[in-house]
Design goal:
By secondary structure, the chain is mostly helical. About 60% of the residues lie in helices and about 0% in strands.
């Protein structure tokens, strides 16, 4: 679009037109719009990637907090201007400063003492926040701030251990799902009083099978459904990758079937046998053999397995466990009619 036309549209009586045009204006035409009475136009100018620093400095003093917030989020906003906005009376503006990639550690330390918890949360989530500052924020009175600390990618094991004993279950959940949480700490959280924390431990890919086996028999139940799919993926692939050539696919499938036979050969119910019974590669004879297992989880796995014979599934539809019955009946209902 010609600059002359953009210039004309920038002065249009309709504020919507002015806002739309501002996104495409050259730098020379941004300055007049920075003083436009429509706040939305000024916000667009503050967000414009080509807005010069001098104009950002002017907009940083705007009477509308959303305009100042847009300045605080601008990637070209210099540190000096961020320091000025860190003292803004609006918490959203200070939050934007705390989240800005260019905000220096000294300014983050200052904002870590902000009266608004959202600002402190933004500091706790900042990638450049040092461990020493995270340790300070880990003692914050607000649980959202402590959660933000627990989510930080640079968390130390010592800090994770400290937050694993937090009085708020949501904080402990965040620790339970952190990729850096050590196995010993996951084992400890597997015995947490809050079911939601134990469930988060069950969903963590790093949780060892021995811990999952304990959770499987959790008194509050429900864990079979929560991590049934993730359990099956730990030992068995649901199918050979589609990129394999026929010979490679056959080899992978043979290996999966061999593993399934090996694990279903166990005489006693176990987590390994449960995993095998969830696998589509399990031999049909094993599915028929264990449908009376003392573990309802194994019976439910057999009811859900696509390879289970209809006759076996029909028997499970009358099982004494409500979950097993529900799985079996749902599978029977989804079964294609006989030809």
């Amino acid at each position: 679009m010609p600059v002359t036309l953009l210039e004309r549209l920038a002065g249009d009586a309709d504020s919507w037109v002015r806002r739309e045009v501002a996104d495409h204006l050259p730098v020379a035409l941004l300055e007049p719009l920075a003083g436009n009475k429509d706040r939305n136009v000024r916000i667009v100018v503050a967000q414009h990637p080509a807005t010069p620093v001098a104009l950002l400095e002017r907009l940083a003093g705007d009477g509308d907090s959303d305009v100042r917030c847009a300045v605080a989020k601008h990637p070209a906003t210099p540190v000096a201007l961020l320091e000025r906005l860190a003292g803004d009376g609006d918490s959203d503006v200070r939050c934007a400063v705390a989240a800005h990639p260019a905000t220096p550690v000294a300014l983050l330390e200052r904002l870590a003492g902000d009266a608004d918890s959202d600002v402190r949360c933004a500091v706790a989530a900042h990638p450049a926040t040092p461990v020493a500052l995270l340790e300070r924020l880990a003692g914050d009175a607000d649980s959202d701030v402590r959660c933000a600390v627990a989510e930080h990618p640079a968390m130390s094991v010592a800090l994770l251990e400290r937050l694993a004993g937090d009085g708020d279950w949501y904080v402990r959940c965040t620790v339970a799902e952190h990729p850096a949480t050590p196995v010993a700490l996951l084992e400890r959280l597997a015995g947490d009083e809050a079911m939601v924390v134990r469930r988060t431990v069950a969903e963590n890919p790093a949780t060892p099978l021995v811990v999952l086996e304990c959770l499987l028999h959790d008194e509050e139940g429900g864990f079979f459904w929560i991590f049934r799919e993730s359990l099956s993926k730990r030992e068995f692939a649901s199918a050979a990758p589609p990129s394999l050539v026929p010979e490679e696919r056959a080899a992978v499938e043979a290996h999966l079937a061999q593993d399934a036979r090996q694990f279903t050969a166990a005489n006693k119910p176990s987590l390994s046998r449960l995993l095998a019974l969830l696998s589509p590669w399990t031999p049909v004879e094993a599915l028929a053999k264990y449908f009376r297992s003392t573990w309802w989880e194994e019976r439910a796995a057999i009811a859900a397995n696509p390879a289970t014979p209809p006759a076996t599934r029909t028997k499970l539809a009358a099982d004494g466990n409500a979950v097993v019955r529900a799985v079996a009946r749902a599978a029977l209902a989804a079964q294609p009619p006989a030809a």
